[in-house]
Structures are given as C-alpha cells and as structure tokens.
C-alpha cells in the first residue's frame, strides 16, 4: 500500500498522542479510509439529471424569499460573464480576483437577515466558515481519524428566524443546539468549493470537501428524522457546486436510509454563454428548493420534535404525580 500523505495543513494542526493518523479532504486515501468507512459514497458517473429533477413540493413560493439569491441572466449578460471568466482563465489571475467574479455574477452573497421579521425566510451566506458540528461516526479501527472540521468556501443556509421567537429560544438550548448550523442559521442546503486557475487540478480535493460538508448536514437531518422515529428520508438532501476555473459541477447528496450518496448531477462550462445560462437555471432551482421545499420540511420536523418532547415531558410529570400519590396513600 502507498504511504498515506498527510497534507501540510492537516498535519500541522493535528498533533496526536493516541497513535491515530489524522487525514482530511486534502489527503490521499481520504475517501477510502474516512468517507467509505462512514457510509459516504461518491458517484462520478456521467450525469443524466435535468434541472427539473430537483424536488418541488408544488407549493407556490413567495418570489421575494429567494429574490436576493436569484440569478437573472439573459443571453447578453451570459456572454459578458463568459468573456470575463475566459479572460481570467487565460491570464490565470489570483484567488481574490476569482472570488470577486464568482460573488458578482454566480453566487450572490450577504447576510440576508431581516431581524424585524420573525418568520422571514431568507438566505445566510458564510465564507470559509467552520461550524464545528458532528458528522457520521468515524471508526479508528484502521488507525485513521477525522473530526469533520469542515471549512467550505461558501455555504448557504436558512436563517433561524424561520421560526417564531419562542421556538428559536427553545432550539438554542444546550440539548437541542445540534439542530443549529450556527446561532443564526439552520439547515444548510448549498455548499460552494472554488478552485482558481492558479490552483486548477485540485478537483479531487474539492469533491472530498463537498462530500464531507454534505455528510455533516445529512447526518444532522438524519438525526432529526431518527428522533421522530420515521423512515422517510426523501427530503434529506444537500447540494454542492464546485467551480474549477472554467468548469463547474453540480452535486446532489442524499441519505437513502442506509448510506450517504454524493452524486454529480450536472457538468458544465463557463466557456460559452449557454453554459452560463444553464448554470443560472441550476442555481435558481437549488435556491428555490433550499428556501422553499427544504425550509418547510425542516421546520415541520423541528416543530414535530418539540411537540414530541412536550408530550414526553407531560407523561413523565404524570408518572411522577402517580408515584407521589401512591407514596402518600401508603
């Protein structure tokens, strides 16, 4: 077997005394010794999906909910975007320039939080954000370990003010904090990984990174479903976009009740205006799902969990009362 290569980033941060070797998404064998062991499967077959395949629960969304992340790109604008990205690619500009291009045209960003709207569903963008949330269990039996310390380039999620204020306080309690992605955000639905022209060729790293991020958020949604004793995981999914200079990939991650499957569903290029237009269609469909279908499903499950906890608490109080009554009568 080839030697496990520990990247300078991960090996520099992970001085271990337990004999285990820390390997992360930038290390070789990450898929074999971490993802596969945790039930995370990466499928890179030629994509056959259409943008219409992204789930839609049929409820008409308020267009304003996703208007800030909606890409309104006509053919002339698409041509302009394609020309700019092609110029960037030829001149191999640095990462900062690339990020500006992406933020301007392809991934609108800001903290879209209306703090005055207690039930305002909006998008929350985080760059190079480290949530510190648990992922699937990693067995150390083979001598390797990973702590799901993901740091995605960009993450979109739902703002927690999808819930009314009392519910927001309730899910912020220590025993329910796992429901949060961060204090102001829940249910991340889209992860971006960007690889610039100067760093092109790092596609495998990006795929590992989006697979790890997807596993964290699918694990969170799976736990919520399991708390509800349901076997319906049809709405447990996460999307990712990998932009590698000129090329882009759309990925969908699902949990099928047994394992996590991360699958490429579209492969495109910004080298043509049509490729840019297709990208916009995929991006808009994902945001519509994330801020609509996904938000409603997550909210429904959380409210069901809180109701279940209240019922259980009431049953416990009744049992305590019966025990006290029996003790008094005896």
Q: What topology does this entry show?
A:
Blueprint: H1 8-13, E1 21-22, H2 30-35, E2 40-43, H3 75-91, H4 95-106, E3 123-127, E4 144-145, E5 154-159, H5 165-171, E6 180-182, E7 185-195, H6 203-227, E8 237-244, E9 247-255, E10 260-269, H7 273-329
Parallel strand pairs: 1-4, 2-10, 7-8
Antiparallel strand pairs: 3-5, 5-7, 6-7, 8-9, 9-10
Descriptive account of the structure:
- With 330 residues, the chain is α/β, with parallel strands linked by helices.
- The chain is built from seven helices and ten strands.
- The strands form two sheets. Strands 2, 3, 5, 6, 7, 8, 9 and 10 form an eight-stranded mixed beta sheet that branches.
- Helix 3 runs antiparallel to helix 4 (95-106), helix 3 crosses helix 7 (273-329) and helix 6 runs parallel beside helix 7.
- The chain is globular and about 85 Å long.
- The protein starts with 7 loop residues before the first helix and ends with a helix.
């Amino acid at each position: 077997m080839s030697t496990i290569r520990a990247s300078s980033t991960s090996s520099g941060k992970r001085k271990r005394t337990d004999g285990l070797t820390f390997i992360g998404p930038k290390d070789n064998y990450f898929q074999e010794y971490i993802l596969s062991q945790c039930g995370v499967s990466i499928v890179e077959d030629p994509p056959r999906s259409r943008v219409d395949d992204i789930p839609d629960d049929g409820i008409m969304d308020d267009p304003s909910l996703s208007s800030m992340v909606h890409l309104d790109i006509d053919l002339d604008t698409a041509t302009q975007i394609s020309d700019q990205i092609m110029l960037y690619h030829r001149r191999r500009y640095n990462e900062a320039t690339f990020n500006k291009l992406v933020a301007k045209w392809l991934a609108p960003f800001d903290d879209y939080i209306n703090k005055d709207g207690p039930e305002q569903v909006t998008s929350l963008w985080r760059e190079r954000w480290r949530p510190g949330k648990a992922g699937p269990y990693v067995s150390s039996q083979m001598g390797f370990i990973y702590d799901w310390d993901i740091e995605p380039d960009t993450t979109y999620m739902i703002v927690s003010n999808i819930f009314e204020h009392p519910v927001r306080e309730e899910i912020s309690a220590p025993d329910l904090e796992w429901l949060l992605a961060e204090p102001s955000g829940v249910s991340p639905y889209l992860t971006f990984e960007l690889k610039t022209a100067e760093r092109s060729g790092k596609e495998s790293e990006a795929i590992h990174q989006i697979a790890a991020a997807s596993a964290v958020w699918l694990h969170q949604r799976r736990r919520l479903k399991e708390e509800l004793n349901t076997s319906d995981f049809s709405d447990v999914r996460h999307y990712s976009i990998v932009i590698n200079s000129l090329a882009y990939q759309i990925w969908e991650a699902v949990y099928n009740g047994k394992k996590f499957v991360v699958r490429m569903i579209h492969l495109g290029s910004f080298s043509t205006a049509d490729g840019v237009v297709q990208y916009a269609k995929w991006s808009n469909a994902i945001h519509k799902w994330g801020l609509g279908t996904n938000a409603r499903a997550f909210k429904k499950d959380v409210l069901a969990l809180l109701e279940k906890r209240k019922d259980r608490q009431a049953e416990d109080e009744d049992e305590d009362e019966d025990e006290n009554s029996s003790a008094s009568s005896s």
